[in-house]
Queue: 4 jobs
Job 1
Amino acid sequence: MKPLPIDAVLPQLREVFRSTPNVVLSAAPGAGKTTRVPLALLEEEWLKGKRLIMLEPRRLAAQRAARYMASQLGEDVGATVGYRIRGDSRIVRSTRIEVVTEGVLTRMLHQQPDLAGVALLIFDEFHERSIHADTGLAFALDAQANLRDDLRILVMSATLDGLAVSRVLGNAPAVKSEGREFPVTTRYLQFTPDGPLEPRVAAAARRALREEAGDILVFLPGQREIRRVEALLTEETHVDVNIHTLYGEAGAEAQEAALAPARKGQRKVILSSSIAETSLTIDGVRVVVDSGLARSARFDPRRGMSGLVTIPVSAAVADQRRGRAGRQGPGVCYRLWTEEQHRALAPFPLPEIQAADLAPLALDLARWGAPEGDGLRFIDPPPAAHLAQARHLMRSLDALDSQGRLTAHGTAMADLPVHPRLANMIVRAHERGLGALACEVAGLLEDRDLLRGKGNTDIDLAARWHALRSGSGVDRTVRDRVRAEARRLRELTGIKKSEGGEESLGVMLALAYPERVARRRGGATGRYQMAGGTGALLPEWSLLAREEFLAIADVDGVGTEVRVFLASPLGKQELVDLYSDRMTVNDEVFWSPGEEAVVARRIRRLDALIIDEQAVTPSDDALHAAMAEGVRMMGLASLPWRRGSESFRSRSEWLRRQGLVPDDWPDLSDEHLLQTLREWLGPFLGRIGRRAGLEQLDLDEALRSRFSFQQMKALDRLAPETLTVPTGSRIHIDYTHAQPILAVRLQEMFGQSQTATVGEGKVKVLIHLLSPAGRPLAVTQDLPSFWKNAYPEVRKEMRGRYPRHHWPENPMEAEPTRRVKRK
């Protein structure tokens, strides 16, 4: 074997492992840790006759590492060295090095917590901090502490917060390899970039082709950007340059072509996702073009939904990407951001456990016997809110009981190597004779959209299912993967025959996503209400918009009204049959502002979703409460205030404001009346249930009911409704101001020498003397002074304007009158 930098520390690693069970190994990219360390430890005394298991974060890296190690032993993969990934296993009884990925290690720990026959667990590329690696390490440490004190654990990484890992491993010793990274020249942008990403990346790749030799590795956030940049480069790139794409869902042939050396006289441009950041050495790569972006899942526990977001990479990830250019010789890295922006990057990526959907973890923890993670050593514990939401989901799927323990149904779910939602769907569907259909739907939901990039914008799951069945017009690689996964799931669940068709697709999605069952909102086109409380919006062209009920699988996960990307129709009776035990039936009586009426209905709900409703006759109390709320919303002006009720209220409130009555005097202010509507208005509402019916109210009686007999007598005595003027007319007094006002025609006051008072003589009435036309002539609280001083001028002016009215020279001796002068 050719020498590698890691070889220099292998003796130290062996020596450390002879005296301690746990070790942290830090090795620079290209040092050879992934393929050298397992082989170097294989013949250690404590490993003889036993196996070691190495966890790789990606399937492609796991397969290539296993093949390379097998080749170093002169064997085919599947002998001494094998791998175990989802849907593919190359393991025999004599296999001693198993390279596993994703949740395989966790499942192995669940099936055999003591890992009998396993002497060493290796966690490779641990800096990526996948949730599977964090969970597997926590379980392994628990098994080591309680079941297998002879089990050894090795955590390996290129860029890592070694102190944190060492602490969780019990202050494990660290071994460091400097690696053999060739110098890499880093070129930053001079100015902050703007505009679309893809043209900038394509321009940088073309620049690298002109300026540098060797193949070029381009890092992009995801498939969408990879395809767009591929199209731009294919249009303008010379024939001696081959464009390849590399991402996790790409077919095996495409991946191998991207990783294989370029043919003589040819150059390669590999457009890659984050899959090429670690573990893989791609022959011939001397240049890296880094967009500086990555796609990451972010989970919102409040809404129970995840969404993919594009974020800047961390400084550690940027260094990993840069290092790809220096694996086999000096290289160049074009960073499409400025040095100032680089200094602002986070030092390490956010651990997946802090941002991911924790539903699988909640199921794993319950199966392990630690539903809340108590006693487990996590480098970063799962966020409490995320885990609480995940456990709530597991309870809603009947996977956990009220104490958080795994139920029989939860155990059946945990036995399936898929997301708990899909596991619940498969188990429940199998009970209904629809297991084969559920396995197909699970395959479709787990993989890339079968119709992506095929000019199909239909959001109906049925289009994907028919495409899977027919095999026409779809990505054949994805189709084969989905079919293989469906077949694997059928075998695991013992399903022999194909059952169910298009009419049951909605039931499948409802079983997987009960909180995303949705009903159309009234007459709103394409707008739906989901059982989880979130609104959902369909594309305006979708034929599903005419369906009353939908089961929704894929949403964008952003905002209070999410966009729907995948759904299926669901019958109302199907929904009732599925979740009748979770539905509630309640009578609701409430005020409807739109109808300006009380609505009384019996509602059947699934969480926040109204399944159906029917009108009911409300009780008097419920009707009065809802009607009072309606008046509160509309305001007191909605009540039939007539002159008597308005006058009564203003008189009472004037007395209370002036402090002329005791503290227990009824409060008729706006604020108090609104607060006590049910108390004073309710008994007089009868069966009134609409705004128009309020005209029937005797508001005067309702207000007077608040007063005792003695209070009514005091009100009439202290604040009389009217005053009798010299003509004998009873004139209403206005109590709406601080000083009561008597508005009366001047001629009716002839002979009046005293100013009237209220409040038992304590408050003078302000007299507004009016013209024959009812317009103000004068305002006074001193009639004698007015007659003497102001009246002569008023008489002089008014005689000409109103000649038929009486304007005597001596008003004090004149007869008061309501009429004009006789001829």
Note: Residues 623-718 form one domain.
Job 2
Amino acid sequence: MKKGQKLILVDGSSYLFRAYHAMPTLNNSNGEPTGAIYGVINMMKRLQQDFSTDEIVVVFDAKGKTFRNDMYPEYKANRPPMPEELAAQIMPLHQVLEAMGFPLLIISGVEADDVIGTLAHHASKKKIETIISTGDKDMAQLVNKHVTLINTMTDSSMDEQGVLEKFGIGPDRIIDYLALIGDTVDNIPGVPKVGPKTAVKWLSAYGSLEEIMAKADEIKGKVGENLRNSLEQLPLSYQLATIKCDVELLVDVEDLQMNQPDKELLRELFAQFEFKTWLKEIQQGLQSDYHEESNEVSTQTENNYQTVLDKNDFEQWLKKLKDAELFAFDTETNSLDYINAEIVGVSFSVKEGEAAYLPVAHDYEDAPEQLDRDYVLNQLKPLLEDPDKLKVGQNLKYDMSVVARYGIEMRGIAFDTMLESYIVDSVATRHDMDSLALKYLGHNTIHFEDIAGKGVKQKTFNQIELDVASPYAAEDADITLQLHQVLWSKLADLKRQREVFENIEMPLLPVLSKVERNGVLVDAKQLEKQSQEITTRLQELEQEAFNLAGEEFNLNSPKQIQHIFFEKLELPVLKKTPKGQPSTAEDVLQELAEKYELPRLILNHRSLSKLRSTYTDRLPEQINASTGRVHTSYHQAVAATGRLSSTNPNLQNIPIRTAEGRRIRQAFIAEKDNCLIAADYSQIELRIMAHLSKDPGLLIAFRHGMDIHRSTAAEIFNVPLDDVSNDQRRSAKAINFGLIYGMSAFGLARQLDIERGEAQTYMDEYFHRYPGVKQYMEETRELARQQGYVETIFGRRLYLPEINARNAMRRQYAERTAINAPMQGSAADIIKLAMISTDKWLSQSATDVRMIMQVHDELVFEVPKSSLEKTKEGIRQCMESAAELDVPLLVDVGTGANWDEAH
């Protein structure tokens, strides 16, 4: 240590427990717990700020028993075992701290306190100023004129005077004090009924534990009797409470020096734990170091990103692209709307660190002359349409749709990094390039907002200067290629997941692009009429609500609803908010609506209001002026189960069970001389359950074309098939679908409006009749616990990070997901395969038929009336043969002038 430096001794074990209990539950996208790691690093960084010139050493408890257990086997016997989530974070935390440069001491046979005590003792003898950072009161015995305690959680410190003020005694009597009061956490006996006040009173009167024991007969009352009964064990308590200050260490206190941080390792660790802010900081530090070490290399790196402004450079890049086995391709446009977006430039990369941006439409003032867009695209067209020239991109569906506007049908799309990431781990919440670069490359990319600004002043790409736009665009292509190399190496070891990527997700990409561009015709006038009618009905509902409440109020104000419901009308309070107020949440209103009219009216009002704002008002605004159609965006990399989602508009959420929802579907129409076909898989998830569970009863029912709900009702209620009532079939349907979604007896009871015991009887009878289903569920749960994931029929992997969580609610949710996800995921895979198969058939035999929508288990087509029957049968055949299960796949095919009529 250098002269004048302080020695900071950190009680790492104390930090660890404090961080674990103080931090909310944090996990990375792989389900690894990270909260305690994050909390300790945070405290250590603050300590570094406060003591930037001093030496900081971190001490942890070692595994196993210590000498105190030999003295007293019951020592710490009352402590519960360390939570698994915490134990899993210890070794990773050690790695991070060492990478940060902190010396780490872990000595077997003693506690961290003893190691700290020994270091503090040696430092004091050498008059080195020492600070112990801990939350442990026992450490007060180590305080002297050279040793001070600090507590970062309470932002407090204790020197000798501080110990006296806090405990009423000096540091030299802390062990006596601890021996008297004992410690329930460490299971140190102490004297029964003697607390801090009594211990301080005795020590003030007699001076020491030894004197108290010698004068024990003088102390009257029950407490004196307790003291006398404890005389034999007090020396042991004293020994247990004493911090050992002569631990044999292999290092001298003056040799404890911090090391330089291992920034490369920290980058890996922060990326693994997904500590994005710290990862960004360390990345910037690495880049800074890199530039300082070699200006020449830095310049070379920048020069590897080229802006192409003349034909010679473009021709050189065309040759590189033609010669490359694989190249990354990306477009820059002036809009996210793939139907209207205009190409502003294109970028490409053929090897790591080498990329080019070719601008064609930057039109800001004094923008340099650029190559003509039509010329560039005509030169690129043969390359982009060549199926043998392999391309990789990030969300290439967008680029494919954009270049299609210019008459280019991209082929040879071999890889998409967004989809590669999604198949590697669909539970990871973000698959955008910026997040993936940070996670897999430790690279903080240039963000669009960094170059374009934010909000209303944000520039479109054509307005951005080339010296700023070019590095951003070229980096997109370069990073995409690098990400592919990392992600494909991961997929290469996962055979079944790679097959899902190659056989389902990538072939689906061009199909979805085509469906999006086809769009769907919507009757704006019909929707506008419906909006007016909904507005009238909303006013009527509002007035009815005012009449029931006896006053006017805002139907969207939780506070006003709370007042009306619970103060004025005195409705029962079913649930409270975290602040103790009666809850008016959706589930509360639904339960109240079963018995009371006003909550039912409010729910109806909310439902209609949402329908109007989301669809009847919004859909006419989303009709594209150039095509006259609505064009949604389908997302492949959002739902963990593999299901597609859609936005702008969201076609998945249009209600089908209400009259208002069906009227919206009636506004989805076909062009003149055309009609719509809606082809919907029949009970696909139950069929998948039959296939997965191999239950004989389910297999027989589906193979013989029986009504599965009626068949289940006959089994559960023990009645002949022909005698099953509609109510019994309804109950059986609730059970069939409820069980595959993990519904409990309580949930089933609520849905069927029966007693919980009766619902449990139904469920027990179901599993008795279909034992294969129960066995499948139990085996799936157990497999999920062992491997941390489940798979679909085709090998799509669905990770369950909470499957072994100690928190019962989180664990039970993961268990329900383990049962349902293979069915939902397999259904998603099957309809994707059906889309690929149907698109192939249509392209070969019926070019005038358009696939226009995918919604849940349904595909919708726009078909000329002249080819209706042929198309119906072709679609049915493609969909029913999309997968081979142990039971037949059946498809219901309907036709009509509008979507509702066809469904």
Note: Residues 179 and 238 are 5 Å apart (CA to CA).
Job 3
Amino acid sequence: MSPIREVLVVAHTHHDIGYTHSPRTILPIHWRSVREAIRLADESAADGRAAFRWTLENARPLMEFLDNAQPGEVDTLARLVRDDRISVTGGYVNATQLVGHEELIRSYDGVDRFRRLGLPVHVVQYSDINGLPWGTVPAMARAGLDVLVMGLNPDHGRPPFEQPTAFWWEGPDGSRVLVWLSLHYGLAETWGLLDGDIGGVVAPLRSIVDRLEARTDYPFDFVVLHATDDNGWPTRHAADGVRAWNERHPELPMTTATMDQAMSRVLTRASSAKLEVRRGEWADWWAHGHGSSAYEVGVSRAARALVRTAETGLALARLEAGPPPAGERRAAWRRDPIRLRSETENGEAVAGVYDDLLLFEEHTWGADESVSRPDSTFTRSHWNAQAAFAFAAYDAARELAVEATWRLAALLPAAAGRSLLVFNPGPDPRTGPVSLELESGVVELVARDVPPFGMVRLPLQLDAPITSEAGTVLETERFRIEVDPARGGIVSLVDRVLDWDLVDPDAPEPLGAVIVESVDPTVDHPMLRDGRREFRPQTPGPGFVRAIACGDQAPRIERGPGWAAITWSASGATLPLVRLRATAYDGQDTLRLTVSVDKEENLDPEGVYVAFPFAIANPTFWLETAGAVFRADIDQLPETCRDWYSIQHAAGVTDGSKSVLWTTEEAPLVQLGRIHTGQWAHHLEPSAGHLYAWLMNNLYFTNFKAAQGGSMTFTFGISALSGGLDPDAIRRAGETVALPLATRLDGSEAAANLSLLGIDSAGVVAVTLALDPDGRSVRVRLQASSRGAEVVKVVWRGTRQMAAWHADVFGHRGDRLAGDGRSFFVRLAPNELATIVIEPVLDAAGDAPDAVDRDQGAT
């Protein structure tokens, strides 16, 4: 127990990208507020405890300020940072768990820019958000960020520990950051300190001080109090409030502080205090809001896949062929680029996609009146702006993907005719389904043996017959699938190789069943009397009723080139039409389930699920989160969400002797074991290996959409395995969805293939190629498996000689890698994310001489 001797008041703006204003309005206000904070700090006198000090809560407004800075402003900012009048922090925006692996890494890119301008940064500050992916720890550590401040809002959730608390958060790779789990970011405003209402501060602050002085696990003699409001303009109000407080209450002095100053005090004490070390996911209680706009979340995930695929293709083309000829243009025709952009333009376009994705994935989803006034002009305008981030990312990523495949296609030998080009942006050979957009519609084909980081040209066979017949049982070489539309789904799914029926016969619903959830109107619950704010841990419930969408029409069985499918339809409350399709592919062990729904808007509380009741008792669930894989309940911080999880693309369920790998393309939310809505569980205790994809809901009381409707499609993958699971299997499964095969029509018939980069991938679970801003080099990120690899061999198979270097996450080069211009070797520790930089070897004239003929270099 420590006596509290001081209150450190940290003033900042809480950045909501929306909520109180449209995102279109608030984004320029945010960066202009940086200029105002600089002005106030520069003009304010050093006033002892009540000096004006300011913390920049997020990095993105500062980055935009730097883009617009006037001469001398950056120097003034650097001086104010040195003088402890302003703090710079490293978190891009207050993000959600929708953020993907690559967005998480790039979200800290601004840190490098700040440091190069003389703006030191080691603290990441987030406010309001209720959780973070476990991969945040290694991502921060790689960027040289060692303190995480969470001004957590516990409303509608629970903090992992009592606020405030300090602890060490350990990542899956063993890295650590110090977490300051702060008080709610909005307390000072709520009490009236920012309005000079000192009387309103006394009782609540005294209560917190008494509680801290009674704790045996709080070794600090100070309290950190945030002084902020949502999207507030910088003012002297916090400093004025501190001055007024100290005049009346000298027994407990307040001192203005930057977050750097406050965290320096925390670090000093933490070095001698025995703080707890905790591992695991910080699962977000607010993540169910991701299901409030299912269609737009699907668009953002499609954009993410497109931009990763596009950047990989552009990076390979950069290394093999260099930049396109200056001024070269192409006529616009369907999927050809309007023009070939310069390397600089492509790099800027990729960065723009990631900015739009991070803005869409930010925690402020909608207007403050999104539920209370769902039809107001402000609510609709706000959502129009929010959704635009996802659509803008998709539009730009789609154009980049077209250009990438076009540039790679130019590396293949020319020939007359018409064919299909398939690009594999991943490190392993791939066989899988691809879709081709034709004027007559979408054609589904199976592309086989597409080489890693390569492209194949395949004959285009559009006249292959497709047969169709009625039937309830589809039999293929791998699967036997039985559908009962009256029950709503697949009642038997036998993997014939493993001799295992994956469907639990005792489950309350069949596999693929679409479930509509609504509140039981007979229950008496505060949520029904007082509104959706009462859907929270303090008032468990309410009771829900659930109905399965069913049908009475016979299923259809179709067989096409390399695939067979069974389709059926159903309907349910607010779902006038549900179309389901289970597709098996020749030689493949993954079943693909596509669920298309026509949804009516409904303002009453509701949820929609797809059931996957796998026949596994006493299961362990593995889940893919950004930058990590974790076991539900086991690898989690205490009191974090067990009722639902927001994942990347893959999950697994196992009993150690048999397992199922499950993937999702569009829908990130899952519930495990059974449907838990309203339980607010402290622990997950699943007795069955049932997984539920939570497609959509509208249960939150503000911020998220009150209703959604329209036509939406969701795609899932299922594959059975003998034996257990590990995090490597989950991450690899997720990468197959995150980096899909890409296709385009080509005006050539001659078969050809190209494989430009090879990775000895036994110890690698993911590989990402990124365009270096220098316009010449490519960054290659290698994610090691949980077991690691002593040495990974990286092979360049193109025509040019290459050089390679070790690099940090920002691309700063270290030692040159040993190699012969073709092969390079990298040592990886378990779970390590290593970056190397590759570029062509230049001759004296600045050209990259060909080492071999293209036909010899392409394999």
Note: The longest strand covers residues 710-722.
Job 4
Amino acid sequence: MKKIKPLKDMLDSVRDIEGFPIGKDEDILELSDPPYYTACPNPYINDFIEKHGKSYVEKTDDYHREPFVSDVSEGKNDPIYNAHSYHTKVPHKAIMKYIEHYTEEGDIVYDGFCGTGMTGVAAQLLNRKAILSDLSPIATFIAYNYNKHVDKVVFEKEAKSILREVEDDCGWMYETIHTEKNEKIITQYNFEGNKQTEGKGKINYTIWSDVFICTYCGEEIVFWANAVDEETGSVKKEFNCPSCKASMQKTECERATTTFIDSAIGKDITQGKQVPVLINYSYGTKRYNKTPDAFDLALIKKIENSNIPYWFPTDPMMKVGEKWGDTWRRGVHFGITHVHHFFYKRTLWIMGSMHNKICQSGNIKLFWLLTSITEGSSKLNRERPNGLPSKLSGTLYVSSMIREINTISFFSRKIKKYISSKIDTTNSINIGTNSATSIALKDNSVDYIFTDPPFGDNLMYSELSFLWESWLKIVTNTTTETVINKSQNKGLLEYSELMLRSFNEYYRILKPNRWVTVEFHNSKSSVWTVIQDSMTKSGFIIAHVAVLDKKQGSFTQVTSSGSVKNDLVISAYKPKQHFEQKFLEFAGAGLEKEFIEMHLSHLPAEPSIERTEQMLYSKMLAFYVQRSYMVKYDASTFYKMLRNNFAEEDVYWFNPDQIDNYHEYKKKMKLEGIDDIRKGIMSMFVSDEKSALIWLHTFLNESKDFKTIHPEFTKVANISGDQTPDLRVLLDNNFILENDKYRRPNTELETLNVTHKREKELLREFEVLLLEAKGSKRRIKECRKQAVIFGFEHCYKKERFQDILILARSLNSKIIESDSELNEFIEVAELKVEGF
């Protein structure tokens, strides 16, 4: 077996790789488990490839897959999924279906935004190898614990030993007096007892409440006591001041404050005042609620006045200017300036004790237990009288009512969860902490990529992870964090550049003719456009985009950028090596047919929007424009090329050798006519003119009158922000009206006439917009987007690049941001005119 070089001797070789985390070398070394996992860029990554990978040789490569389009609905109530919280996850069972489809046993799967490592879990369960990386140290640490083999017996023994030591050390902090009718009340306070004694119960949780100042009389108002109805579990929108009886809302009140010396940082701190209002405890086999009494208040005071004998993190929150990040909110985070302010002192003491004993044990995996209780033990654990307590997802929100739980008991429960969540992994993994913009892998070295990248400003990962990472003493290097974040001075442009760099790396390391699957979770069309642009500019060809219907567990196909309110799954492939080389050599000249042939071979042998003539033309056009090659085909000559070289059936186009498979698919699915086919595909979103025409093109394979078309079209159409002609105009200008019924053009002449008519109308509208842009400095807020796209295509072919830029600079930025086709023409025009 090859002897690995110590990580300590290799740190300098990876220190300049983008995403190297912020922390001391000794802490990075202590947290790492080389060669499987390093809390920095993994220097053993290419050794892993040499051991497990298979070299790509095009002459002998017979790989072929169509995009995976089956149902991937998977629940999240799984021990593995729930063992450790994280900002976002894809269930490993869902990922397994993709890996099984696209790979063979022994193949290498990569995920550069790995999060908690579910891609690795999925790969190992299928006897594949996995390379995982993420910018976040906590993400890769969690991923390591999910993916590295663990001796459960040894782990449980060590964890329970630490639990006993912490109970002996700190158990007294969760004692409370049990006061039930006819039972003796103990008045002698013995805080040092660590076991339940006679007359004392064990605290399960304490509820804390904000205190406000009455707008009218200036007296204090305890929010819990006056705004919460404990019987119904409801929180009143309006409540009365107990002193002056005035009615008010929380937003009308000022917070009461308290100032104290924070001995941990040696500063005076002013924060919102909170008081304990309810204690839930166990006594014998029963649970009780009580109002904190003198014993409880004295216990809290004793803890507050004591010095914690253990290390705990006191890092300033990620301060940028006067705020520590985009998750900062005035009022909500009043006086919360350092990480330890997110914890009550009792919790800090106990977690510090845990941290100390884990360090002494030397088992880094036990830190997983500490980080798994961090959020639930913090002030993020909001009390909800009408539901279970929980952290508000995607933010560092601190509620007016907080449940401070028994952290020792929480630690005990997590031991059981960890043991039940572990799988029999094979250690076929390599995990590193670095940016996806800089992957230290050789070209053409991985067999498949499944990834769930950050999407715009959905989540501020580094800020949300800061509480966890502070306990690890290693935090995210945000320089290349791919987010839209004001505090980091990153807008859509910066996000776009970082995403493109990441997909460039994905494209480089993926073997030719292989697939990448991207999960997408964002409702902003501008971000969706960036994802599409980044993938296509890097060289990938998108073959299938679908939206998961979580209620139905099914997919709806997507054609446009406006349809992103649900989770999308994007399937794209890297072209074959010989095609890329040939295309480059001939600058695309005469290769239109070969491109369509290649693309059709990567589409599923079933009804697919990608097989419509409109989508095929758009795909070919984009491929040429992105590479600044001459486009010789227009829509009419393209359709003629299709008819001369490919097979059409049920309005979809196929390579001749795919037709038999399509027939087998129809037979298997019992699809007899076009109406049956249509039912399987026509639930697609109609959000603009392009998707409307595709829908109508499929729907009108047989003649139908307007009364039949209109209600069906209305069910799927949701067009906004685009001056798309109404349904009647679309029908009159793009279809054939016979005997008061509309149908598709069936002959070459009919298609030619309809296409010329449509293009003439679009060009006329474009020229009107261009004149308006040249004659006025006012922004064009709305327009017919298809007219602009066609006009840009026309100008591109005629080399009128300046006209593209003139109109682009007059259009509202939202129009451009939400459409990848417009972006492609504009960027090429900028390159041609301005040389950058």
Note: The longest helix spans residues 748-775.
